[in-house]
Amino acid sequence: MPETPQPQPTHTPKSPPPAGMEPLPARSEPPPAGTEPPPARTEPPHAGAGERASLTAFLQYQRETLAMKCAGLTAGQLKERAVPPSDMSLLGLVRHLAEVERSWFGNVLNQEAARADRTGRVPGERADFDVADADPDEAFAVWHAECARSRAVVDGLDSLDHTVDFRGDAYSLRYVLTHMIEEYARHNGHADLLRERIDGATGE
């Protein structure tokens, strides 16, 4: 797994954090995570769209693909490590990608100083894939909230060339969007294998 960059902000943003950064409200009596109908995916534009519209559309499509891969499963199935000896699970991927969203859009692009909420059972180890005691409803709520925050950060930047300094290196909005498409696409390949091993479901 790539290391999630740790925040060492080098400057204070000139503008306040974008709107929409508040946590999503808790649902009352939520259905079990993963049991909702498969979400509809929005096909990225095939032609006529600019670079920014294409990048943001492809990233959102990848997010919706992960949600689709998790739909219709029980909590136990979401936690299942279906491709041994890997410790990956669908729920672990959701938790991991929530942290990746927070890191790249919050800590890097928005220069926040938030750290990961979870620590591993072994000091210093990441806990994204340690899902034995994880609450799927909470994990999905956190992921959806982080995705909403990420979209708000992107909407608040006026150019793909917007660049920030993070730990002595420069990152543009264009780079972050492209990297996140790669990150989701790679993990959605893992999700394909996990889902097929769990219940035989295949395809996009």
Give structural notes.
Strand 1 and strand 2 form a beta hairpin. A two-stranded antiparallel ribbon has the order 1-2. It has 204 residues and is mostly helical. The protein is globular, with a radius of gyration of 17 Å. The chain has five helices and two strands, in the order ααααββα.
Give a topology summary:
Blueprint: H1 51-70, H2 75-79, H3 90-109, H4 136-155, E1 163-166, E2 169-172, H5 173-199
Antiparallel strand pairs: 1-2
Helix pairs in contact: 1-5, 3-4, 3-5
Percentage of helical residues? Answer: 40-55%
Alpha-beta content class: mainly alpha
- Main pleated-sheet profile: 2 strands, antiparallel
What order do the strands of the largest sheet run in, or round the barrel if closed?
1-2
Q: Oligomeric state of the chains?
A: single chain
State the gist of this model:
It is built from 5 helices and 2 strands. With 204 residues, the chain is mainly α.
Throw out a few tags for this protein.
204 residues; mainly alpha
